[in-house]
Amino acid sequence: MSALAVVLPSAPSLVAEPPLEVAWDDWRDRGHRLLVGSLRRALASQHPVWAQALDEHALLDPLLVACARQRPPALPLAQCAWGYLPSRLRPSELPVRAFEDGRVLLPGVGLFEGAMPRCEATLCLVDGKPRLREHPHARLRALPEVEGLPVYPHRHPLLRHLAGRDGEHYERVRVSEPTRHNVVALAEALRLLAAGSPHLHAELMSDVRMCVVLEHHALASSAPASLHGAVLLVVRGHESPLYFVEALVEQGCRIGLGEVAEAVPLLAISAATPMIALGGDVDDERGLGEAQADNYALARVLLALEPLLDHAPLRGHLRHELLGRIAHGLRRLGRGLAQVDHPGFFTEQGLALHRMLRRAHARLHGRLGGLLRALDVSDQPTVFQYERFLANNPR
Fold first, then answer.
1. Three-class DSSP category at 331
2. Interhelix angle for 241-263 vs 176-196, to 10°?
3. Of 43, 125, 113, 116, which Cα lies nearest the Cα of 78?
4. Which of 23, 119, 131, 220 lies 20 to 30 A from 102 at CA?
5. Dihedral-angle region of residue 165 (phi above 0 means left; psi in -120 to 50 means alpha; beta otherwise)
């Protein structure tokens, strides 16, 4: 059967339980408040007046979060907060530090380009505009945005510790060119999410505060806890809009799940427990916590892809790719849920989440499971590759 000839039943009009997208909002909100409170206290230890002046949006800037948690911080905490302060509280002069590429980042404002690498400088106001006293020719530029999502288009120094042991891959990470090549596809992905899953789109635009598009064969997309609110999307050349739909949802939803975990324990045993010790595959290097997060993210991805089946512009190769991504996601989620299907792994709340994911998978499989019989996704790696799918499933 041709992939394009698969007949898909309509989505059910009634859902007997709260949808997965909204069922955990209360616990997310509780975790969110706990996180904001801890950050406010960290800032108050150095700048009590500033801590009271900053709102939640400012406190959750990824760089401010990172520097509040690091010992020692990569940048002065005052540098991370300055751009979010009301003008009456901004000091007229402030010591700031440049990254190794000579850029001076001011969260909430932008970044200076043209300073010396790793230099110390003095931020001051000249005619009401921020300047670097020691580098008067350095100019402040706003960070670019794609459909309202801030994108950091350079190699961010805080990526170093994420780039393999001792940052071994960091110098070969490419950012600027991959970002230019993929900005149109990223924008289209955000428009697709806004049209097909408005609640999820709003969640992502609230939770994802910075996106970094990068390329390196040894790295994988992630939402690192050390850069809370940032997503790192690893590409292979020019990616499709559907790649970015999947990557944004899969990584962005981990931010919200992390906030749930701030409020309620989900696991009854250590999150670091190796899956191989729990009966997982011999080549599965994940811990239980990562496996649970993968299942949650996969379910959210499938719930985001499903409405696009009825999206008129997705025709031809994009619809073919969509069917392949759904089949691949269903296969991965089914296996992932089976691997952790043991009540002893979870707390009461974690078991409730696991069962909710199973129900979501059962509904999706009931409607779309025919794709697994019609399409061959057996040799797909973890990250879906359309060219491999097309070779096995010609249009």
1. helix
2. 80
3. 43
4. 220
5. beta
Q: Which of 253, 221, 254 is nearest to 236 (CA)?
A: 221
Backbone angles phi, psi at 205, to 5 degrees: -70, -20
Q: What is the phi/psi pair of residue 222, to 5°?
A: -160, 165
Question: Measured in whole angstroms, how far is the alpha carbon of residue 105 from the centre of its chain?
Answer: 21
Separation of alpha carbons 311 and 192, rounded Å: 8
Read off the amino acid at residue 55: D
Residue 149 identity (one-letter amino acid): L
What letter represents residue 286's amino acid?
R
Percent of the chain with pLDDT over 90: 71
Contact assessment for residue 268 and residue 350, using Cβ atoms and an 8 Å cutoff: yes
Pure H helices in 264-395? 288-305, 317-339, 348-368, 370-374, 386-392
Segments in 306-347 forming alpha helices (H)? 317-339
Residues in Cβ contact with 306 at an 8 Å cutoff, skipping those fewer than 6 apart: 11, 326, 364, 367, 368
> What digits encode the pLDDT tens for the residues 308-322?
998 867 788 999 999
Banded pLDDT at 12 (limits 50, 70, 90): very low
One-letter amino acid at 137 equals H
CA-derived radius of gyration, the chain: 22
Handedness of CA 15, 17, 20, 22 (dihedral sign): positive
Is residue 118 within 8 A of residue 96, CB to CB? The reply is no
**What is the pLDDT, as a whole number, of residue 2?**
45
Q: Where are the alpha helices (DSSP H) in 109-197?
A: 176-196
Predicted structure pTM score: 0.91
| Residue 170 identity (one-letter amino acid) | Y
Instruction: Please state the φ and ψ torsions of residue 138, each to the nearest 5 degrees.
Output: -70, 135
